[in-house]
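Problem statement: downstream parser choked on a complex file, so we are re-checking the raw output for the flavin-adenine dinucleotide run. The parser issue turned out to be on our end (a line-ending mismatch), but while we're here, posting the original submission so the record is complete.
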Amino acid sequence: MSVLVYTEINKGRVKKASLECINYAAKIAELTGSTVTAFVNNADAAQLEEIGKAGATKILSVKNDKFNADSMLVSAAVEQAAKAENAKVIVFAFDIVGKAVAPRLSAKLKAGLVAGAVDYPSVNGSSLEVKKNVFSGKATALYSINSEVKIISLLPNSFPVTAGDNKATVVDFSVDLSSVNSRIVVKEVKSNDANGTTPLPEAELVVSAGRGMKGPENWKIIEDLAGSLGATTACSRPVADMHWRPHHEHVGQTGVAIRPNLYIAVGISGAIQHLAGVNGSKTIVVINNDKEAPFFKSADYGVVGDAFTIVPKLTEAIKKFKANQN
Amino acid sequence: MKILVAISNVPDTTTKIQFTDGDTKFNAAGVTFVINPYDEWYALVRALELKEANLAEKVTLIHVGLADSEATIRKGLALGADDAVRIDAEGPDALFVADQIAAYAKANAYDLILVGKETINYNGSSVGAMISGVLDLPFISLANKLDLAGNKATVEQEVDGGTQIVECELPLVISCAKGMAEQRIPNMRGIMAARTKPLTVVASNGAAPLTSVKSFTLSAGRTAVKMISEDNMDELVQLLHTQAKVI
Ligand SMILES: Cc1cc2nc3c(=O)[nH]c(=O)nc-3n(C[C@H](O)[C@H](O)[C@H](O)COP(=O)(O)OP(=O)(O)OC[C@H]3O[C@@H](n4cnc5c(N)ncnc54)[C@H](O)[C@@H]3O)c2cc1C
């Protein structure tokens, strides 16, 4: 019996969200007296080692250049791995691939799914109980998964990643996708992250700005602040709608939901739909010239005043702090 | 070409959330319910646009829920859907809902099934992919553009670090995200017409759900904000380092 983890390689590295999943699976394995098997496609030796260090006992290493484009193929491949390993729990990240594949697999295996778990599960008889956020972060629900095979997808950035000195047994695993009627053809891929910063869903530090910035020409000070921290930039919805910033930076209920360690919100009012996407942030700093701005109610630290004078001062203070640390 | 659009009935975004029965049930008293924004603004409106462009003949709404969600379904009809189906069950979990929708879709041969990317109450992002699994159809997630040419759909979707354009022959399931269409407001004619449009009620297959909610907890608010003078950014940096430990 094993806990199977879908592990993904992204830009030459094991995706951070996948490492979180392996750590998480190791906890479940401890609780249920089972072992952790990672499923990974097209990983090299260093990546396999990293997966082992995160806590996988065994790695099913697949070499297949086709299946990543289509959730139908990924789902069929993981299904074969789950059956081969007699997996009773399957763990995915609640990210773009996990959102498309985990529910499909849940339907295929008649396996109950909790999508977007935020806590380690507990065992209750033959059920697993696990928490997830509901009502766009306004509450959590404790779910019980009652099927024989259980699937959990994990909200990225909900758990720290730790690495030990564990070494996994690597097994070459071949998947037979010949019976899958995949019809999706990729015509073009457009990349967002030309500037090389961490993609928003994975970012631990985020500097975000809203309509208070008055116009796209003023974003330099936001980029400077982000640069001083090594943070990723984000924005509120109207800013993306007015094309001041690209759409993939838009956070909130209709945009990306994020859970960074630090979220700095500049000139953002803190409307409920914005909060829905950022209220999982561990620490929130709000800079706003209106002391009544609703965002201050959801902030840990607040600064009242004009962003155009405060942001450069904060950037300087961070640079000074970093210089002293070195 | 027939399009099926799945709609969910959710508390309006600004609702103050409360629970009853020892925190085991959502308290719906006094709450305004609406069509889940992703289902309405993106999936439904795009389906209507495709029909208006003569690329689809019919747009059918489907909802798994009890009679009290009919106002939400009528709103979808007022926006322009041709007819609607309500599967008479309180959707206890996503797979149950997907199973019901898939069974109806299969029996009635839809070419395109559109859902919103997630509901704003359960935030599971699951139903579309589950429908595709039950029906063994291709699934395109997080689509922000959809065009049809004959039997072929061209879709732009979000992927890690960017977007991609894919093509797929119908039948197909798509989950719709921002960018797919612009919100519409129903007009008086639509509202009048919606009253007489067909709304079929179908019994559920009564399958047992595989997951259940045991209890709800309201998210703890943050402790009171600490205000820092704008002339003291060094203090803020120190607090972020020593107190919050985030830098
Ligand atoms: C269904 C629905 C979904 C939505 N989804 C989202 C979403 O995903 N994300 C999202 O962000 N919004 C979303 N919205 C919109 C949301 O309700 C707000 O309209 C939006 O978040 C406001 O953006 P803002 O704070 O940038 O702008 P504003 O509301 O205009 O606020 C600007 C703020 O900047 C401050 N300010 C102005 N000048 C300065 C200055 N010089 N220095 C410092 N501060 C200054 C002002 O005091 C104000 O607080 C959604 C709305 C709906 C109805």
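For whoever reads this later: Residues A 210-212, 236-239, 252-255, 267-269, 271, 273-274, 277, 287-290, 293, 306-308; B 13, 37 surround flavin-adenine dinucleotide (CB under 6 Å).
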